Amino acid sequence: MSGTFVTLVAAEIERPSIDWHAIAPELILLGGGALVTVIDLIWLERVRKLIPTLTSLVFLVALIPVITLWADGSGLPRGLWIIDENVPATGVWEGAFVVDNYSLVLKGLFLLSAYVIVLLSTNYMSEGDYYDSEYYQLIAASVLGMLVMSSSRDLISIFVALELVSIPAYLMAAWRKRDLKSNEAGLKYMLMGVFASAILLYGMSLLYGIAGSTLLSDIAAAIDIGESRPVITLGIVFTIIGFGFKVSAVPFHTWAPDTYEGAPTPLTAFLAVASKAAGFVALINVVIVALPTQANVVEPFIWVLAAITMTVGNLIALRQTNLVRMLAYSGVAQAGYMLAPLAVYDGISDRATSAVVTYLVIYAAMNLGAFAVVIIAARKTRSAELSSYGGMFNYAPGLTLAMTIFLFSLAGIPPVGGWWAKFEVFRVLTEGNRTSGIALAVIAAVNSVIAAFYYLNIAKQMWFLPSPDGDNSRIAIPPALLAAVGLTVAATIVSGVLPGVVSDMTDFVNVAAGQ
Amino acid sequence: MAQYLPLAALLVLAALFAFLSFVGSALLAPRRSTEQKSAPYECGIIPGREPPQRFPVRFYLVAMLFIVFDIEIVFLYPWAMVHGDVGLFGLIAVLIFSAMVFESFVYLISKGALDWGPLQINQRQSEMVDASRTATSTIRKVGLEGRYEHAPAKTAAASASDELDETASAA
């Protein structure tokens, strides 16, 4: 497949041949998304019911090259170009796009999350009288940005990918058009997102000004001067703040609860899982690849962010009475746990990356599952208030059991997935017996106990309390939502009982080297 | 924390500068207001009436149509400069790109961006919208109460007066 075009023309400009296999997931998603749009435009109402199916098929087809690339692991890491000694390298995009085990795991995570999100959205969108075809096309566009993000090792491609992730999400957050809360969600998310992009760009411009290159590996080489300079510190701090908005780290989390509450619930799941993961991927790429020598600047800043993020997130979550808002704040707190390994990455950057990605994978399964249950329950109760979950065991025992599994997992109670994610984080934090790491581990442990209180409070509500309106009729669960719950329950349990399944995949070697 | 000291110093200086600027301006600036100074424009025609607060959304659609072709041109120029060098590969690449940009044009047309005639409501008004019993269905749709209070079935006259909203929806 590769190298066909180079031989077509004897050109003045020598092109290195493109590694089509390496960028196949992105190309399939781009072409598939465009095709779905065309199909929607031609047949309009007649194919409206098919659009979600087609979009999820595109995600699954895009997963095929991810799997084949993984199976063909010998060729990794690969770049955008095939390295050919006879063709001079152009230099422009050399090393900016890297496909390695790390990015493949994340691409798989993004595509599977997107598949589950489509399952969650199908009934919600078609029954709500929203514009639904465009919704799926925007999801596909956003996921394309995530795929590009996981391979980006260059400031420009990271920024473009981040905008591609965010801009469709701004639109989708305001999708419930006639609902004021949804308008507020979209506007708030867009304003804060644009603000974050501006700060991020400022930080990036400083890093570029020092290094004279947007390539992360060049920046790493340029700032390896053995001392700290204020301008480097400023660039790093601004860049991390920019990503801090995306991953909703305190104090840059203020958009998250309102946006999560107002946006359509499937999209909230998308923001809380996939979009947040994309922010973390960008942060990891910059910190691990570009700033390995600046640990004395990065570590204290991320340490403070992680500590206040988990503490503030959990304390505010304690007081929430709306389950979606509670999950939003719990997501903020979970972001704190995910930041923690990056606060001690000096010398163990591969292990820190593995811990964060492990957490992202397991968090995706359990959080998507929790949102699936919220969506199913809201079909009956039309509410996400905590009190409306009373008596669920009486009329939906299976659903209650599934939700309990997700809540136990979120709280980190063995044997379901979440404990392994937390265990990995603690292992990295205590590695090397550094005071800062152990202090952060203690803060994280205290926070896990606080978090268990409000997670288990939901379970108590479902198992033991009577339903508020005495309506104990059963919930009809549509097949798509049932499939989503089934998939996420399976993933949550397997990742907890057989943690090797996840940790074998996320056992990265030399992430920073890339190409 | 020595590496953060310059940043902290900068932060303090920036805050001080903003604060002192306000204080200095309040203390030192002369306040002699005249009618000319407080007018919106110092020269030109004095505006007779306020511009309308809301513009029909179709103007924005035309603006977006412009941007579609603007972007296409921006990328076609560099290709046109080197089309001989990049050859067939470049031609195919630029054709794919043009097709993708053109798709957004087709999308706008399909959604009625250029329908400037009398408004045709192609908005989906399914029976799901109505929470109450209808002639075609005696089943009350549970849970839709109150969600569509802004979207009652409209008469032609009523919808014409409300066409700004409707065009926005149709887009």
**Greatest interface and its participating residue counts:** A-B, 29 and 29 residues
Helix and strand sequence of chain B? HHHHH
**How many strand units of chain A?**
2
- C-alpha-based Rg of chain B, rounded: 29 Å
Compressed to H and E, one letter per element, the order of chain A equals HHEEHHHHHHHHHHHHHHHHH
N→C terminal distance of chain B: 54 Å
Main pleated sheet of chain A? 2 strands, antiparallel
Largest sheet of chain B: none
Radius of gyration based on Cα positions of chain A: 22 Å
In brief, what are we looking at here?
The complex is a heterodimer of chains A (515) and B (171). With 515 residues, chain A is mostly helical. Helix content of chain A is 70%, strand content 1%.
Summarize this structure as a short list of keywords or feature phrases.
heterodimer; A: 515 residues; two-stranded antiparallel ribbon; B: 171 residues; mainly alpha; Methane Monooxygenase Hydroxylase, Chain G, domain 1
Structure in words:
The complex is a heterodimer of chains A (515) and B (171). Chain A is an all-alpha fold and 515 residues long. Chain A is built from 19 helices and 2 strands. In chain A, helix 1 (24-43) packs antiparallel against helix 4 (132-151), helix 3 (101-127) runs antiparallel to helix 10 (265-290) and helix 7 crosses helix 10 (265-290). Chain B is mainly alpha-helical.
